[in-house]
Amino acid sequence: MNLAQNTAEALRATRDNWLRSLLTISLIAIGITALVGILTAIDGIEQNITSGLSDLGANSFDVKDKDNNMRSRRRGVAEKIESPLKYNEVMEFEKRFSQNVSSQDAVTIYTNVGFGTEVKYQSKKTNPNSSIVGIDKNYNLVNGFDIQEGRNFTPLDIQRGSQFAIIGTEIKETLFKESSPIGKRILVKGYGFTVIGLLEEEGGVGSSSSTDRSVLIPLPMANILGNDRQLTYTITVGVKNPTQTEALMGEATGLMRIIRGDKLTQTPSFEVSSSDSLSSSLGNIKGLLQLGGGGIGLLTLLGASIGLMNIMLVSVTERTREIGIRKAIGASAKQIRTQFLIEAIVICLLGGLFGLFLGITLGNIVAKFIGSADAQFIIPWLWMSIGIIICILVGLIAGVYPAHKASQLDPIESLRYE
Length: 418
What we know:
Radius of gyration: 32 Å
InterPro entries: ABC3_permease_C, MacB_PCD, Macrolide_Exporter_MacB
Mean pLDDT: 80
Subcellular location: Cell membrane
Domain MacB-like periplasmic core: 21-253
Oligomer: single chain
Number of domains: 2
Number of strands: 14
Number of helices: 13
Protein name: ABC-type antimicrobial peptide transport system, permease component
Membrane topology: Multi-pass membrane protein
Low-confidence stretches: 69-77
Strand content: 15-25%
Structural class: alpha+beta
């Protein structure tokens, strides 16, 4: 028999033993669903995070303190612990760097005053998990944060260090419920602030993002709130033209070296990192997740292949007399072996197609649930192709022994089988 005839015969055998075939197909479908579903979900979550990193359609890079916790030792001597960026240094950088960049690029300075802070309004207060961030006029623009209600800080608000605040949606829901927060006075670290703006909800993995639990205040007020400790300042530069990112990073490095007084022979006493490094880190994490998810899916398929082999052996036993008749009328051992191999592959492909449908659907649902409801629907052609190839391989592996056993049956003994 040729391939078409063998395939038709395999479909007939599948139909005749529909319950057994359905159970086998379900085993394969579960394995492919696990494999393709996990990998699709990972791709969807990555797409959502990558989209979030480029809300402005632009690249960005940070100028910040060196991570002294990660310093290395050379020849038994620890590298020098660099002093943090000072307020006057970051302000000088912003003033001079802003004069040299395009009007479409933006520079912002911010500092975190506290991560576990209570925010109070009259008798109500939030959990001690709010972050207080001191910002300048470009912070929301560079980070792509939109104002849902009220207004942003004006340059005059920043210059005067006005006791104004912009809050996240989680703080609004906790303190104001049904009423508008605009114009209300909240208490943060013992200082009163008038709410002038409400950020749009960002959301995040699990529940809300840190932005939804943030209180944004003018940078000069942040210096007052954090006068009891050394604040850490970060400069972020948003670049509209991605091709200019490397050049601007070099320019920023040179300017900050001058401001910090770094000698030409020494390494910079600060760090310049771009969003590309975040993408690279994300890619590494994605690779590990794919490895783990693929391993789980393959283990599931291994169990399914064992089940398929067992069912194929049962099929050979039940069809012993049929095999004897085929051999008696001239079928060769090769033809019998090919018939059972193709039957195993057909069952795997039927289960695989159903598993692909379920895997893609569930993977996208998980990606939307964990990432964002606005995430695009993904059709993972690569994982679909890999899934089909794996189905064929599983069919071959699971069908080899039963097919060989069937081909070696003695036709006389097979005809006597009851």
